[in-house]
Amino acid sequence: MLGKKLSGNNEKQEENSKIRKNISIQLFSNSFGEDEIQAIRPVFESRWTGMGNETKMLEKELGEKWDCPRTLVVNCCTAALFMSMKILGIRQGDEVIIPSIHFIGAVNAIFDAGAKPVFADVDIRTLNILPEEIERLRTENTKAVMVLHYGGHPCDMDEIMEIAKKYNLYVIEDNANSPFSTYKGKYCGTIGDVGCTSFESTKIMCMGDGGAITLKTDELYKKAIEYRYFGLKHKGQSGIDSFKEGAQKWWEIELNCLSNRYVTCDILSAIGRVQLKKADKFIKRRKEIWDTYQKGLSELEWLETPPEPSAGTTSSYYFYWIKAKNGKRDKLAKHLVENGVYCTFRYYPLHLIKRYNSDAQLPNSELLNETVLDIPLHQNLSEGDMAKILYIIKRFK
Predict the structure, then answer these.
(1) Rg value, the chain, Cα
(2) At 18, is the pLDDT very low, low, confident or very high (cuts 50, 70, 90)?
(3) In 3D, which of 376, 375, 374, 370 has the Cα closest to residue 328?
(4) Residue 194 and residue 301 in one domain
(5) Considering its fold, how many domains does the chain have in total?
(6) Where residue 389 falls among pLDDT bands split at 50, 70, 90?
(7) In this structure, are 238 and 288 located in the same domain?
(8) How many CB atoms lie within 10 A of CB 269?
(9) Does 15 score more than 70 pLDDT?
(10) What residue numbers bound the domain in which 350 lies?
(11) In sequence order, what are the residues at sequence separation of 6 or more whose Cβ sits closer than 8 angstroms to the Cβ of residue 118?
């Protein structure tokens, strides 16, 4: 009996291996070239590869792009989310409302702070948090709400900020999907109290790994500087910085708080500076692909295409999500993968993860979990790639 079971497992593994090798169109891609290689050469030649001038310049350039001078570069978006809990003083006994369609790193940050995540349902079309859920779920222990701009489409920030002001709640924007999305003239990530952005390998602007945190006030910015580097006083500076400022004993240390190390390095920041210059071009291409999908799939009765960005907003076009009707999603996913096109559903509802021990019942999130599929959307897709993807979907029955 055990032999048969092992044999069956081996056959399944072999089948999965063949499928993986057959995948020719990936869900994500990045665009590195000679410009990025040339950018890191001076960093290597300097013999200093830690956080330095390249990182400072990237922070300045991001701040100018986003019109947010209180911008810090960190080692990843998840680090920024963990930092946000500390900066806002979220601790044991507090509650943070978070949409169930969200990344695990976000809810892990809440648990790490000792707080309780309260899972909210999302809009059935945009997959963004429903503002009325904040009203429904808020208690006297609610300290903050964390939002995700799903796929790059901004949430209804006016209503969210109005509710937050009414109940004195902090707003944390998980900006990983929406680094260059705008809401009524403001960049996402700069509207709430804290914004957390990702530049890791699957993101639009890619540093290999990395992220940024944006802060609404000088007070929060000061705390972020300290929490980014162990809690060191005096802007988290090094001994060399203290020496340059004339300190007599530059090796002495004072801490304002206890924290981790969330800094990045100049190798990645040098890459980020080049990528930032290309970001608008990447977004333009992604929108062209989005438009091609919208036109090519709109006539399929068994499939629902995503909505366009709301009036007064622009999208980063990070995901393109389709909704398969009549229980066809899983078969469609297998059909695409077997024909060389990778797809998935992001993000698996948090309230369904057993480790989080939630008893929430969120009908929209649960329905989306059974019907939605993200298909490839990145600037490296060719016309032939798009034609293949559309052909494969259209001949699915």
Answers:
(1) 22
(2) low
(3) 370
(4) no
(5) 2
(6) very high
(7) no
(8) 26
(9) no
(10) 279-394
(11) 95, 96, 97, 98, 137, 142
CATH of the domain at 239: 3.40.640.10
Same domain (yes/no): 136, 164: yes
Closest by alpha carbon to 101, among 125, 137, 74?
Answer: 125
Amino acid making up residue 285: R
Give the pLDDT score at 250: 81
- Per the DSSP assignment, residues forming a β-bridge with 211 are 74, 198
Query: Please, which residues bridge with residue 129 across strands?
Result: 122
Continuous segment of H or E residues that includes residue 366: helix 363-371
Which tokens go with 99?
């949409």
Q: Which of 146, 238, 138, 153 is nearest to 192 (CA)?
A: 146
Span 49-84, pLDDT tens digits: 999 999 999 999 999 999 999 999 999 999 999 999
Measure the CA–CA gap between 36 and 274, rounded to whole angstroms: 6
Is residue 332 assigned to a domain? yes
Task: Indicate whether 362 and 311 sit together in one domain.
Answer: yes
Q: Does 236 share its domain with 349?
A: no
Q: Is residue 218 part of a domain?
A: yes
Distance of alpha carbon 204 from alpha carbon 302, whole angstroms: 30
In sequence order, the β-bridge partners of residue 324 are: 303
- Which of 274, 305, 326 lies at the terminal end of a domain, its last residue? 274
N-terminal to C-terminal alpha carbon distance within the chain: 37
3-state secondary structure of 238: coil
Contact yes or no for 73/211 (Cβ under 8 A)? yes
Does residue 157 contact residue 390 with C-beta atoms inside 8 Å?
no
The answer to which of 23-27, 102-106, 240-244, 264-268 has the lowest mean pLDDT is 240-244
21 in a domain, yes or no? no
Whether residues 252 and 330 share a domain: the answer is no
Residue finishing a domain among 274, 307, 339: 274
- Please say whether the beta carbons of 200 and 209 come within 8 A: yes
pLDDT score of 338: 96
In the sheet that holds 182-183, the strands lie side by side as 186-187, 182-183, 313-314
DSSP 217: S
Extract the runs of DSSP E, i.e. beta strands, from 33-103.
71-74, 95-99
